[in-house]
Design goal:
The complex is a heterodimer of chains A (about 525) and B (about 325).
Chain A (H helix, E strand, L loop, with lengths): L2 H15 L1 H13 L1 E3 H8 L3 H13 L3 E5 L5 E5 L1 H5 L4 H26 L2 E2 H15 L8 H13 L3 E3 L2 E2 L14 E2 L10 H17 L4 H11 L6 E4 L1 H20 L2 H17 L10 E2 H7 L8 H13 L6 E4 L5 E3 L2 H21 L1 H13 L2 E2 H8 L3 H13 L4 E6 L9 E6 L2 H29 L1 H19 L4 H8 L4 H39 L2
Helix pairs in contact in A: 1-2, 1-19, 2-3, 2-4, 3-4, 6-7, 6-8, 7-8, 11-12, 12-13, 13-14, 15-16, 15-22, 17-18, 19-22, 20-21
Chain B lengths: L1 H28 L4 E2 H7 L5 H13 L3 E6 L2 E6 L2 H9 L1 H13 L5 E2 H8 L3 H13 L3 E5 L7 E5 L6 H4 L4 E2 L2 E2 L1 H24 L4 H8 L1 E2 H11 L8 H13 L3 E7 L10 E7 L35 H8 L1
Antiparallel strand pairs in B: 1-3, 2-3, 4-6, 5-6, 7-8, 9-11, 10-11
Bound molecules: iron/sulfur cluster (SF4).
Subcellular location (chain B): Nucleus
Function (chain B): DNA-dependent RNA polymerase catalyzes the transcription of DNA into RNA using the four ribonucleoside triphosphates as substrates. Specific peripheric component of RNA polymerase III which synthesizes small RNAs, such as 5S rRNA and tRNAs.
Keywords (chain B): DNA-directed RNA polymerase, Nucleus, Transcription
């Protein structure tokens, strides 16, 4: 892993789980596979601390373990999952747009805790929903459960691996074997739902004082309660990818075309295997049937849009056969490549200006060019073109190949060909994104640290006023407390708020770029 | 533009040389003085204009004199010695002249003239100077190499490879001119695309309505009158190509209708397109466009917590 990625991992983990967890994770990241003792040595931390840190990391699905040939237990960290933690707000937002507020909270809870039982998730979600509505309305657990089942059925939430009960001679195995059968991955056992109901009933009867007892009875009652759930990030990624495609279509063609593509993608969710790089073929009729009526797009118009989409230079859809009025597919790999290119080009445009943008795109179109040809095609005077090219070369956006005409490699008898290697540029840019993201986090921490005292004060004042409100204190008293924060302090607080918001917003925007680059690189390795 | 002027121009210098040498010969035949009427009679194929040019050239190079006599104005050889000298170098001059002529409007470099003529550099220089002063040939600076001069016949329009075409004036590339054209072409195409969008037609019809042929763009630009030089359709297509590289325009090629103005039965159509994405997220952060990102780390000379770019951005 590159240094900027490691640094970002450290910063993310430190912010969320503290310094100890972060340093253990970084030690682990440097090692690949590493047993507990070595980890403690390397990090200079006590065994106990390391254990705790590992627990946290395992709980959040960031670390897994395995037994090596010599019988040691080795831990391995999944750095890409750590980096994905900055994407949490986007997952939560997805859930909200798809299934509404309860789903949003379910996902938020799951992300915050890493792994949770159904019961816990539902309970916390209900609590929070009730709180949000200030108790005005009763939140039915059936609704929340329904949403949960929805999320599982659509694969946004999946079962965690659990110790295999069938492992023979448990005493010998020094490590629990974690597994989950593929058939069970996305199934909520009926018992789980019902069991939850019955437990709940029991609880309401017993009263809350018997909490500890309840857990005990649960365990003896059914083995299902040991089922933990977690967020399936790759499903969210698939959704984010589809969103990116729809947005691109809307921008390049129009809203209706975007709706057509959206319908196609919805269809492909059902028809296509997860992780496939090309969606299964679909007919115009299918797309038509899948399009919500309210768009009022006739079948004929859809046919036209299909033609537009397939004729577009970005080739959003491709026609694979003429049967049934035309069969169409969406080639994800190709589209992500197109999008990745667009992001890289945009980076060139913003960083080097429109002349460089022209040269860069020219190189992408024509592959290998000599400087002279670049000048001619791009119509940029020789001196300027040279400068621009070398600036991009210096920052590794373009590469240079020497093709000697004679074996002596004499410069005067050598072709110097400029070209762009998208894969290489994506990697380089991704590095830069990680660095930028790290910088944003550091700056955010810095701003809060600088204003620690003020922020603490505000927190205290808020807490006091909140408790006063509850006890129904005099409004004038409340005001008095509130005035403990002076107007300049208030102004400063608004400023800090503004800054942190801006930085956080920026982090999310940055993740847009990161997501496309990562997906492109991931797909590039898949055949 | 060059082609249309070529036909009459090509013949002329040869005749001009003939005319001049014929006049000199006539002068020798009529040592008492040669009248315009005699020239006219003996060489009826030349018109008055050509005669005047030839005579003027002879006068300016000091080969003949203009004298008044009883019969009116007459021409006389100025100095027989000088004439014979010209005569002596005449065939060398002719050789050089022919070499230059063969190079047509691409011109020829002095070194190549030397190789081809097998003359000494000093001789060649002298002859070239001579021919230049007679306005038979001219030197043109080439855009390919700023110090390189090429020679060609006086009346030829230099080839684009020498002048660089419409985009060069005095072998300087006119990048501003190119940029203005680039913007104007785009404006034109974009207006068309906007009209097509507003037409509320079928999606396919909208797309087709946005397409414009290169000759239409050419017409529009010519009518704008922003160009001092006459541009060809090919010139405009070069400009339109830059718009393609700019990611603002797409091109498609269709078979032209019979009698269309495109060559080889192909019609190049262009249309303005919208970008695929908004500026990418990385570039919306200060670090994305930061010039010193390489040297930026905690505890370094530039660091995220002390960075002024961040500060400006956050204060904004
Ligand atoms: S923190 Fe400041 S100096 Fe560092 S990379 Fe970002 S903008 Fe540049």
């Amino acid at each position: 892993m590159s240094s900027s990625a490691t640094r970002l991992c450290f910063l993310i983990l430190k912010e969320r789980y503290g310094e100890v967890v972060a340093s253990v994770a970084c030690c682990l990241a440097k090692k690949n596979y590493c047993p507990l003792r070595m980890l403690s040595q390397d990090s200079g931390l006590k065994l106990d601390q390391v254990k705790k840190a590992l627990c946290t990391l395992i709980q959040h699905n960031l670390v897994t373990f395995q037994q090596n040939k010599k019988g040691f237990i080795e831990y391995v960290i999944h750095a890409e999952k750590v980096l994905q933690q900055t994407r949490f707000p986007r997952y939560i937002y997805c859930a909200k747009t798809l299934y509404g507020d309860p789903a949003e909270l379910i996902i938020e809870e799951l992300l915050q805790h890493g792994q949770m039982t159904l019961e816990k998730v539902v309970q916390r979600t209900i609590d929070r929903l009730t709180e949000a509505m200030e108790g005005k309305q009763n939140v039915s657990s059936t609704l929340v459960k329904e949403k949960f089942v929805n999320l599982v059925q659509t694969h946004f939430v999946q079962r965690c691996t659990s110790p295999d009960g069938n492992v023979e001679n448990k005493e010998v195995a020094s490590m629990p074997v974690l597994s989950v059968s593929p058939e069970e991955l996305y199934v909520v056992p009926k018992m789980e739902l019902d069991g939850f109901e019955s437990r709940k009933r029991k609880r309401s009867g017993e009263g809350s004082e018997a909490a500890s007892k309840r857990i005990k009875t649960d365990e003896s009652e059914s083995s299902e309660s040991s089922i933990f759930w977690r967020v399936n990030v790759s499903r969210f990624h698939q959704y984010l990818r589809d969103q990116a495609i729809v947005q691109a279509v809307a921008s390049k063609i129009d809203k209706n075309a975007a709706e057509v593509v959206r319908a196609m993608l919805r269809l492909s969710e059902v028809k296509t295997d997860e992780g496939a790089l090309v969606a299964s073929a679909m007919t115009v009729t299918e797309v038509f049937q899948n399009l919500p009526r309210e768009f009022g797009i006739s079948k004929q118009t859809i046919e036209q849009y299909m033609k537009l989409l397939s004729e577009d230079s970005s080739e959003f859809v491709s026609k694979v056969s003429d049967s049934g009025g035309g069969m169409y597919v969406i080639n994800f790999k190709k589209l992500i490549t197109v999008l990745c290119r667009a992001h890289i080009e945009s980076a060139v445009q913003e960083r080097f200006g429109s002349k460089c943008f022209r040269i860069f795109r020219l190189l992408l179109m024509k592959k290998n060019l000599e400087q002279k040809q670049i000048e001619e095609y791009a119509m940029i005077p020789s001196k300027e073109a040279k400068e621009l090219l070398y600036r991009m070369f210096e920052e590794k956006f373009v590469s240079l190949t020497e093709v000697p005409k004679t074996p002596d490699h004499a410069p005067s008898r050598t072709f110097y060909l400029f070209s762009v290697n998208i894969n290489q540029v994506s990697r380089m840019l991704l590095e830069r994104c990680y660095q930028a993201c790290g910088n944003l986090i550091i700056r955010r921490e810095h701003e809060t640290k600088e204003n620690r005292r003020l922020l603490d004060k505000q927190q205290r004042v808020d807490a006091i006023t909140a408790s006063m409100e509850q006890s129904g204190a005099d409004p004038s008293q409340k005001e008095e407390i509130e005035q403990m924060i002076t107007p300049p302090e208030k102004a400063q607080l608004t400023k800090i708020k503004h800054m942190t918001n801006k930085i956080e917003h920026s982090e999310l925007q940055l993740d847009d770029t990161i997501f496309i680059l990562q997906t492109y690189l991931q797909y590039a390795h898949m055949k | 533009m060059a082609e249309s002027a070529n036909a009459p121009v090509k013949q002329e210098p040869v005749d001009a040389v003939n005319l001049e040498s014929r006049i000199l010969e006539l002068c020798m035949e009529f040592p008492k003085g040669l009248t315009d009427a005699i020239i006219q009679n003996s060489m009826p194929q030349f018109d008055a204009q050509q005669r005047v040019t030839a005579i003027n050239r002879l006068l300016s190079t000091g080969q003949v004199d203009l004298l008044k006599s009883s019969t009116g104005l007459v021409y006389k050889l100025k100095d027989s010695a000088a004439v014979s000298k010209v005569k002596g170098s005449d065939h060398q001059e002719r050789l050089v002249y022919q070499i230059i002529e063969a190079a047509e409007n691409k011109g020829i470099w002095i070194r190549d003239i030397r190789f081809k003529s097998n003359l000494l550099l000093t001789q060649v220089n002298k002859i070239l100077k001579n021919l230049e002063s007679k306005k038979l040939i001219k030197a043109v600076k080439s855009v390919a190499a700023s110090k390189k001069k090429v020679y060609m016949l006086y009346n030829l329009e230099p080839d684009r490879t020498v002048t660089g075409g419409a985009w060069y004036s005095d072998q300087d590339f006119e990048s501003e001119f190119v940029e203005v054209l680039n913007q104007q072409c785009f404006k034109f195409l974009e207006q068309k695309a906007a009209l097509a969008r507003d037409s509320k037609a079928d999606p396919m019809a909208q797309k087709n309505a946005a397409y414009t042929s290169s000759s239409d763009v050419w017409k529009y630009i010519s009518e704008l009158g922003i160009s001092k030089v006459q541009l060809s359709i090919a010139d405009i297509e070069t400009i339109l190509d830059t718009l393609i590289y700019d990611g603002k325009v797409e091109r498609t090629v269709v078979a032209a209708a019979a009698g269309g103005d495109a060559d080889a039965g192909q019609l190049k159509l262009y249309r303005a397109i919208s970008p695929l994405i908004q500026p990418t997220g990385l570039m919306k952060t200060p670090c994305g466009v930061c010039p010193v990102i390489k040297d930026c780390y905690e505890g370094g000379a530039v660091s995220p917590s002390t960075c002024i770019y961040m500060k400006e951005w956050l204060d904004y």
